[in-house]
Amino acid sequence: MAAPRTVAPAGLDQHPLSAAFPPMDVADFDTLRDSIADVGVLNPITIYEGMVLDGWHRYCAAQELGSLGYPCPAVELESGIDPRAFVIGQNKARRHVTQAQLAMAVTAVHAWKPKGVNQHGGERMGTQCPPSKSTAELAEIAGVGERTIKQAKAVQTHAGPAVVEAVKRGEIGLPKAAAIAKLPAEQQAAAISASVAKQVKALKAPKAEPEEIHYFGPSDVEIAAAQEAAAADMSSLEALMVADDKLAAAVEEIKKLKLQLAAVESQRDGYMNRSNELISRVNSLKKKLAKAEASNV
């Protein structure tokens, strides 16, 4: 059975489990507030331990618009639901957070204990709060590596609030935050400022102007080398031209010889034809002579 809806009263605080996640940026909050001004709060916020567990930004936007008659519907967290799993599920699915921010949120959420439960764990009446998770389990919940969870735990345990908030805002990463957490408390804030200032300087650094290139021509050594190479190329070209001339002359000579051979062959054929004719005439005369001699006998 769904929890009954009520109207959220003014003056509620954000629950620590909700505050474990980074806040919405100004532009997104303005968009949300404009949407609520148009259609109201469509999804009720969830209240747990008298504080806003889910829907903190909807609640704040409705409070800003409250004088214009924008109530904020609310429901209590249903009995038997683990508030830690609930808040992680709501924010992980809905909000865009980095792996570092998500690791920090998951470790903070699972380090939290409900009212009436000591540091050794236990179950509060009406709300399911299983024992603390291992590093591997937290890494699986957050969808990150175990090393990232270990860094997040180190920051949560040893870093000051300024370092934790810097990670939540996305100003520094977990490896750098874990290194800063090893410093004395009085040095951590200065280390954060230096790190952030360095990043800002890198972002705002003007693009370097391209260096002006000055060219003064080739050196004497380069000119001499170029001249030597040109002379070698010229010699090669001349040798090739001579070879080409000899080849051209040989080709012309071959053409002439072929023409002479064709003329000789033609003359030969003519002589052979004339020889055949003479042989035929000689044979014919021999026959006539033989007949004449036979007639005179």
Helix content: 55-70%
Shape: elongated
Alpha-beta classification: mainly alpha
What is the CA–CA distance across the termini? 163 Å
Series of H and E elements: EHHEEHEHHHHHHHH
**Cα Rg:** 52 Å
Given the structure, what is the number of helices?
A: 11
The averaged pLDDT comes out at: 80
Report low-confidence residues grouped into runs of 5 or more.
200-205, 210-215
Give me the count of strands. Answer: 4
Beta-strand residue percentage? under 5%
Instruction: Give the biggest sheet.
Output: 4 strands, mixed
Task: Describe the strand arrangement of the main beta sheet, using strand numbers.
Answer: 1-4-2-3
Describe the structure.
The chain has a domain at 219-297. It has a four-stranded mixed beta sheet. It starts with 5 loop residues before the first strand and ends with a helix. α2 (26-39) crosses α3 (56-64). A hairpin with a 2-residue loop joins β2 (45-48) and β3 (51-54). Residues 200-205 and 210-215 have low confidence and may be disordered. By secondary structure, the protein is mainly alpha-helical. It has helices at residues 16-19, 26-39, 56-64, 83-94, 99-111, 135-142, 146-158, 161-168, 174-181, 185-204, 220-296, and strands spanning 6-7, 45-48, 51-54, 73-76.
Record keyword descriptors for this entry.
297 residues, 4-stranded mixed beta sheet, mainly alpha, 5% strand
Q: How would you summarize the topology of this molecule?
A:
Elements: E1 6-7, H1 16-19, H2 26-39, E2 45-48, E3 51-54, H3 56-64, E4 73-76, H4 83-94, H5 99-111, H6 135-142, H7 146-158, H8 161-168, H9 174-181, H10 185-204, H11 220-296
Parallel strand pairs: 2-4
Antiparallel strand pairs: 1-4, 2-3
Helix pairs in contact: 2-3, 4-5, 5-6, 5-7, 6-7, 7-9, 8-9
